[in-house]
Amino acid sequence: MQKASLTILGCGSAMPTRKNFPSSQLLEIRDKQFLIDCGEGTQIRMCQMGVKANRLGHIFISHLHGDHCFGLMGLISTFGMLNRTAELHIHAQADLEKILKPQLQYFCNDLSFNVIFHTINTRKHELIYEDRSVQVFSIPLKHRVPCCGFLFEEKQRDRHIIREMIDFYGIPTFRIPRIKQGEDFITDEGEVIPNGILTTPSETPKRFAYCSDTAYYEKIIPIIEGVDCLYHEATFMEDEKIRSKQTEHSTARQAGEIALKAGVKKLIIGHYSARYTNQTDLLNEAKAVFENTVLGEDLTTYEI
Amino acid sequence: MQKASLTILGCGSAMPTRKNFPSSQLLEIRDKQFLIDCGEGTQIRMCQMGVKANRLGHIFISHLHGDHCFGLMGLISTFGMLNRTAELHIHAQADLEKILKPQLQYFCNDLSFNVIFHTINTRKHELIYEDRSVQVFSIPLKHRVPCCGFLFEEKQRDRHIIREMIDFYGIPTFRIPRIKQGEDFITDEGEVIPNGILTTPSETPKRFAYCSDTAYYEKIIPIIEGVDCLYHEATFMEDEKIRSKQTEHSTARQAGEIALKAGVKKLIIGHYSARYTNQTDLLNEAKAVFENTVLGEDLTTYEI
Fold first, then answer.
1. Radius of gyration, alpha carbons of chain A
2. Mean pLDDT in chain B?
3. Which one of B18, B43, B108 has the shortest CB-CB distance to A48?
4. Domain that residue A173 falls in
5. Which residue among the candidates B37, B67, B213, B228 is catalytic per the annotation?
6. With CB atoms counted within 10 Å of each terminal CB, which end of chain A scores lower, N or C?
7. Co-location of B219 and B295 in the same domain
């Protein structure tokens, strides 16, 4: 089976540090790439990791704070210089198009590909993207500006056919696709061979949720329930709880609480305030509530 | 004496590489900081080098290609978060204000400081900035879009007074500033003590020229003649001479030729095309013409 993986390009917050670039991550599912947020330096991080973005067609922007979108112009320009031809789709609030279009006209007026904007309603939990193998849903978040997270759901794959059974029952090739989808096989003699004898189930589809930036917000719990991996912001620790409320960010402990209540399998924290030079403290605070927490780090790939 | 120094934050060209960020450098003269170009990631490089930009008041943008200005929004946002209060002056072509203003309004509408735009006429060689210790002149360059380099000239400092002479002639304190500026001293008895006896000359003022991006362009030679340090772009090697002409860039050899003809003291090359993984080849090509050439490198400080 192909694995789903998440590569963190940047998991700092508003101010970059020596370790962390602003928010950006690359999700790879079934040979497709999805970019989630695009802070300054995203294309530089990709270059540092040797990421070829030739399977990247869709970018999802959570909200219009600079640390989540200032890398778009550089990335698009570079795609132009690489003579990209495939359409590039950007999913974001409507304002982004208004801000980027004049810049695209000025700096990239001879682009070799189209940039297509799709408007997200950040207040609604709804399907915003779908292809044959993946669905993406918006997750309304609670932040100072309109903001939403993203739930990526792999679709159920076809069942695995048991090769010996094809031979045993002499199943013709043209029948196989439907059997993989769960159909029984009827022999020439009219005998019904139940699908369960011919196939084994496919892997459980992967689910990944990205929740940044947000205050502690329990309304997301039913949406992200049981995901294989949750990336949740942990800008502050409990020592800065007042500031986290004011700025509508979460503490590491709160990220752990959300993970626990939603029964997720793994939590990755990130979007750390630049004030924390020792991020292990943030990890420990989240782990005290939710054991299977991982410290998000730039230039690192996580299996989902 | 305080030294003048140049810190290269990025000396890559349009496409970043593992080694090089896009164009940006910080010039420090007499305790002031000047930023020259501001490609994507400039603030990240500053952070990586521990540069505090609290003496930075003026930014000079050579031209409006993304790799020379996409870092401005991130830098300005961060200055805002740091509660900067000092005015920030940006010297660039008029179009930059039109492009940045809507972004500033959207992303930084509550900035704690003013951003002031100054228009450069890139076709003219003229004084574009002056304070008590430094003058900056534009240097018209030859590129696909309006573009100019910058000549930074330190002003002549006061002469050094010889302390023993103050005591010997009993020179009152209030006379000292004018003697430092070259005046003779007249004793109470009417004796004229020539300035040359009382003082020694100050250091020769430093001159630095930044020339990027540009085709080989001999018209800059009289302007940059004899500078202590010339940063000249060397996007290509002679093997890509046709491409360098098409794109109006220089080869390393041409950078060396300009340095030689202008009789500069030191040449730093940069703005390397991403195709050259071994930049020593570029250095050697320039050195074959102009021996005192230095390879520009990101995150490196050069004395001027």
1. 22
2. 96
3. B18
4. 160-200
5. B67
6. N
7. yes
